[in-house]
Design a protein that fits this description.
This protein is of the alpha/beta class. The protein is built from 9 helices and 7 strands. The structure holds S-adenosylmethionine.
Length: 234
């Protein structure tokens, strides 16, 4: 872990102000944000599940939950997030769209009782967890709740083995974000947070953690600068 990196209180970070600005800010901070979510939906459709039961970990303001719930009234979505402010924003959206197939859980997966799932999402979540056991526990907690052969779609900010290349791609991403953001000053601030708040790992480390948690080797299906998306099959 980098010496800059500290463990942040996630609920404090995702407060009411961040929740209110999130849907606008994330579009320039995560180049390809909409495509990530549309790809996730396409992968879900491809499964053609007869009784979809989906676990959305770190549901946030609800991009993936709303898309998946809108796909079929038959799909039962469990949206879990420790941030009450983020989850409230999702609830308001679900109400205004009259989607009643989403259950909201203001908690961590480890505390989720009972149900199992046949599809799961962790989109832009695991990179907030330190790699001193927390990431492995997180993956294990999801694994335990998945039915055999089910898939977890995982999207995270990654780190390149080659530090020089990592810096170059990070800077290129920042240049791009600045060019598309209506609030470039927020991009500067966000890059400071990447150094202090995120716990990025390499793809090799992700494979190792996935293996330890019980998943098959992650299959990458998308990359935008340092943001990568994977299928982890149980
Ligand atoms: C960047 S947002 C992503 C939201 C949504 N998945 C999206 O793609 O827009 C990260 C979310 O993960 C939540 N989160 C952070 N740590 C978590 C954990 N250990 N378990 C579940 N959710 C967590 C945060 O509260 C926040 O709402």
């Amino acid at each position: 872990m980098s010496s800059h990196t500290k463990n942040i209180d996630i609920v404090e970070h995702f407060d009411e102000k961040r929740a209110a600005d999130y849907d606008q800010d994330i579009l320039s901070f995560i180049p390809g944000y909409d495509l990530i979510h549309e790809s996730n939906l396409a992968l879900f459709r491809e499964k053609n599940l007869s009784a979809p039961s989906v676990l959305v970990v770190g549901a946030g303001t609800g991009k993936e939950s709303i898309l998946l719930a809108g796909e079929s009234p038959n799909a039962k979505i469990t949206a879990i997030d420790p941030s009450q402010a983020m989850l409230e924003a999702l609830k308001l959206k679900a109400e205004s769209l009259k989607l009643n197939n989403i259950s909201f859980v203001n908690d961590y997966v480890v505390n989720l009782k009972g149900k199992t799932f046949n599809f799961a999402n962790s989109i832009l979540v695991m990179h907030f967890l330190p790699d001193r056991g927390e990431k492995l526990d997180f993956l294990r907690d999801i694994y335990k709740r998945l039915e055999p052969m089910s898939e977890l779609i995982l999207v995270d900010f990654m780190k390149l083995e080659d530090e020089c290349q990592d810096r170059v791609i990070m800077q290129a991403m920042k240049n791009y974000q600045m060019s598309i953001s209506p609030t470039p000053e927020k991009i500067d601030e966000a890059h400071e947070k990447i150094k202090t708040h995120l716990h990025r790992i390499t793809e090799a480390r992700l494979s190792d953690l996935a293996d330890k948690a019980g998943f098959y080797r992650p299959i990458k299906f998308f990359q935008s600068f340092l943001i990568s998306a994977y299928i982890l099959r149980k």
